[in-house]
Write a structure and sequence with these properties.
By secondary structure, this protein is of the alpha/beta class. The chain has 11 helices and 8 strands.
């Protein structure tokens, strides 16, 4: 979809990977087609949704005229790579998950920033964390206070910063560092590490998006997959002085989560010893106490 193409505006390719978000997909798509920035091509790739998302997307495509692609389920990284390889002609590329949505000037602000800062291969900004009803969850807004730009590889590597997923990329960066790892469930963390290890990252100190944080976001099985994917990503930087610390941070997180469940006390102990570096962390000792309480249950 190209909206009111203008010769003096660079083309922005927007890819929406859609999967089982019938409740949220309209809000997502309409936040994109109503952007104040007009030279956009929008492609929505439905990754084998099993509910009413495909029907809703067909209706939205009829109304707004964007490119709509249906495929069997292959996962988020595969879908993003397909969007980059097959459906992105723009100078800039950006993605929006089908349960998230954007402020209406998100693309305009990012294009202006990128045009004025040619040294950055990507940029990002703050995000509002929202629940299933699109209400802002204020307690998570504190996460934005730690965000920054520049040479932030070490902050990303050790989880001091996780840039919100409202990135805008220069197209050529994917030819330099490669695409998403389709075997890695922490695709954003993986690619952020690859880019930030070589380049400075741009940061816009403004809200650009709304990130959906629901109960399903915190399920134990999902957490395990992401934690293991973080470890997989870290293995690509074994040469780095912070390699050991980064791994132990992941083990600390796993220990803290497993200590909440009596049936996972063995896993908790396994990760306890792997994260022992953080013995001075208050969450560490709080989890040790919980583990002792649960041990006889």
């Amino acid at each position: 979809m190209e909206i009111n193409k203008s010769e003096n505006q660079p083309l922005v390719s927007v890819i929406v990977p859609s999967y089982n978000h019938e409740r949220f997909i309209i809000e997502c798509i309409e936040s994109i087609v109503n952007q104040t920035y007009k030279n956009i091509e929008l492609t929505v790739i439905d990754d084998g949704s099993k509910e009413n998302s495909p029907k809703i997307l067909k209706e939205l495509q009829t109304k707004y005229g964007f490119n709509l692609v249906f495929q069997e389920n292959h996962g988020i990284a595969y879908t993003l790579n397909r969007g980059i390889n097959e459906f992105s002609k723009g100078k800039y590329i950006t993605f929006c998950a089908s349960d998230d949505f954007w402020l209406l000037d998100k693309v305009e602000k990012q294009v202006e920033f990128m045009e004025n800062h040619i040294e950055y291969p990507m940029c990002y900004g703050k995000t509002h964390y929202i629940d299933g009803n699109s209400n802002i969850i204020k307690k998570y807004d504190i996460i934005n206070n730690s965000l920054k730009g520049g040479r932030i590889f070490e902050d990303i590597f050790t989880f001091k910063i996780h840039p919100p997923v409202n990135y805008m990329f220069r197209r050529e960066i994917f030819d330099i560092v490669g695409r998403y790892d389709e075997k890695n469930n922490a695709e954003d963390y993986y690619l952020n590490l690859k880019i930030s290890s070589k380049f400075s990252i741009g940061y816009i100190n403004e809200y650009l998006s709304f990130y959906r944080y629901t109960e399903s976001s915190t399920k134990l099985d999902g957490f395990e997959k992401i934690a293991n994917a973080h470890l997989l990503s870290i293995e690509g930087f074994q040469y780095h002085p912070l390699y050991s610390k980064a791994k132990k941070i992941v083990y600390l997180r796993k220990f803290i989560i497993y200590s909440m469940y009596s049936k996972h006390k063995i896993k908790a102990v396994e990760n306890l010893f792997k994260s022992i570096y953080f013995y001075s962390n208050k969450d560490f000792w709080y989890s040790v106490i919980k583990l002792i309480i649960y041990w006889k249950k």
